[in-house]
Specification:
The protein is of the alpha/beta class and 300 residues long. The protein has helices at 2-6, 19-28, 59-64, 75-87, 133-143, 176-180, 205-226, 239-245, 276-284; strands at residues 8-13, 41-43, 49-54, 70-74, 95-99, 105-112, 127-130, 148-151, 167-172, 183-192, 194-198, 228-235, 253-256, 263-270, 288-294. The structure holds adenosine-5'-triphosphate (ATP) and magnesium ion.
Length: 300
């Protein structure tokens, strides 16, 4: 029907660790979504975009089966699903559209705290509980270690204590969950972040135009996050030194200061975080009225 040609359909996680950041990215990009979380399908109020809210496990398949145009999902789930679909003889084509700046985590092997650890070969013949059997098997195969996987889609971290497995292979962010379950992280086998993926088929031109615009907005939001606008008054004689310590800065604007021949105002966009140490160095070089302000939006 007509809406399929015109409205960009995006699958996102309904509720979980990617949801808040995904919705914030949409909001910061000017995509207004009606807020009823219970509905599977939501429409953007101001753009031809439909949002499908699903379990994250379903997102790669929805893209690969061409049911949606885009999906936002963790690389861990994307790769695991791809390997499973390959085995099942299902189609696995997709495009990575954009890496996103959230959802960072790692897939790690953990063993009971009191156990010694020499390397993956310690797991020869052992039982390992995981939600990601294919990612784990790939690494173990390369290491030449035989093991048995115990598939658990939740509560993986209690498996050793419950006597279900000797070790686990699970997602870790801070490591606090492992520690509180008497486990220690011994080997990272995969690092992951959230990605925007798209179906590997050309979109209708009208939809492609929307897609291109949204990609630019997403990039703009992400680069604005760390960027700062830095302003200061500085001695002309120290400009070279000052420019040298400004982090990730482009060419600054130098503005004459009325009634001052040896000092100028300097304005610059820094694409990196600005630390106190940098400000202290600037001050030591004679800069005054140093201001660092956040940037809300950035384009081009
Ligand atoms: P769903 O109900 O949608 O299937 P889930 O329980 O499978 O949700 P979540 O725990 O919400 O999944 O995690 C979703 C994704 O968020 C993970 O696959 C991973 O890519 C990412 N992630 C980011 N930080 C973490 C973390 N600290 N622990 C686990 N996953 C994380
Ligand atoms: Mg899931």
């Amino acid at each position: 029907n007509g809406s399929e040609k015109k409205r960009l359909r995006i699958a996102i996680q309904k509720s979980g660790r990617l949801t808040d950041e995904t919705l914030k990215l949409f909001k910061d990009s000017g995509i207004k979504i009606s807020s009823n979380r219970d509905h599977l399908l939501a429409h953007a109020e101001n753009l031809p975009i439909d949002i499908l809210r699903v379990r994250d496990d379903d997102i790669p398949g929805l893209v690969m089966d061409h049911v949606v145009d885009w999906g936002i999902v963790g690389q861990n789930v994307l790769e695991e699903t791809t390997m499973q679909r390959d085995l099942d003889g299902m189609y696995t084509g997709f495009n990575e559209v954009l890496k996103l700046n959230f959802g960072d985590c790692r897939l790690s092997v953990a063993v009971p705290m009191e156990e010694e650890w020499h390397g993956l070969s310690d797991l020869e013949g052992k039982k390992i509980a995981t939600t990601y059997p294919h990612l784990l098997r790939r690494v173990m195969k390369n290491a030449g270690v035989n093991f048995r996987s115990v598939l658990l889609t939740g509560s993986v971290e209690v498996a050793p204590r419950a006597g279900l497995a000797d070790a686990i292979c699970d997602l870790v962010c801070t490591g606090a969950t492992l520690q509180s379950n008497g486990l220690k992280e011994v080997e990272t086998i995969y690092t992951s972040k959230a990605v925007l993926i798209g179906r590997d088929q050309p979109l209708f031109p009208e939809k492609q135009a929307i897609a291109d615009m949204i990609i630019e907005r997403f990039k703009g939001v992400m680069s604005a996050v760390e960027s700062r606008y830095i302003m200061m008054n500085a001695p002309k004689a120290k400009l070279e030194q000052i420019r040298a310590i400004l982090p990730g800065a482009e060419n600054p604007s130098i503005i004459e200061l009325e009634g001052s021949s040896d000092r100028v105002a300097l304005h610059v966009v820094s694409r990196e975080k600005v630390f106190w140490e940098t400000l202290e160095q600037l001050k030591a070089l004679g800069a005054t009225s140093i201001l660092v302000v956040p940037i809300e939006k950035m384009l081009g």
